Request: fold
Amino acid sequence: MAAEIRVFPCLTDNFGYLVHDSESGATASIDAPEAGPIINALEREGWTLTDILITHHHGDHVGGVAELKQRYGCRVMAPHDKTTRIANVDQRVANADVVKVGNLLARVLETPGHTLDHISYVFDNDKAVFAADTLFSIGCGRVFEGTYPMMWDSLLKLRALPDDFRLYCGHEYTASNIKFALTVESDNPALKARAEEVAQLRAENKPTIPVLLGEEKKANVFLRADGPTVAAKLHMKGAKPADVFGELRERKNKS
Ligand code: ZN
Ligand code: FE
Reply:
């Protein structure tokens, strides 16, 4: 039986996610931006929280952990990097560790760059990846703690996942990401198609997530930094992909 996944807004532009195993009744929250919307989503479904899977130490991803843990006595998994202080953690996880949510399996993929402790959770059997602030739809996270080569390497790890996997990211930034991407690749047909789709979804007040990874690979300019067209647009023909990526990220920072 496949995982049941629920998507709902938290804080200003964060996503809340519940992953439910109907066989065992286990339910995980991916990150915990704030407790209220997560409790509401659980009550709407009649589910009990058993696990919280944290991706990185930023406040907008851990703000609800203490309250949820107190209320449900759930298990809290977090990145192994202890230099970043995340409170209320039961288990630290590192690359290739497999976390069980009932009978569901989540594989840990270290994806540093946005922060040094950032990890993503890959539910291989369910074809779902929770990439938080590493990979957004048509964008990527800001590189706060790592380097551009480190972040580029993390994006490559996510890009290596199969096309039929669904991407669940940390923020609803898709529309603004598209605005920027069009300044670089206004002639990318996959990007133009995504722009139309996103305009429609936002007009209906619907989330733009999840999205198929195969479509992101075609439309997301940050995942295309090693292709000839993007380098040419930036007048960086022959440059290292990590440098092209860095230039893109800096332009986005200024946009
Ligand atoms: Zn963050
Ligand atoms: Fe965030």
In short: Residues 107-255 form a domain with the Metallo-beta-lactamase; Chain A fold (CATH 3.60.15.10). The mean pLDDT is 97.
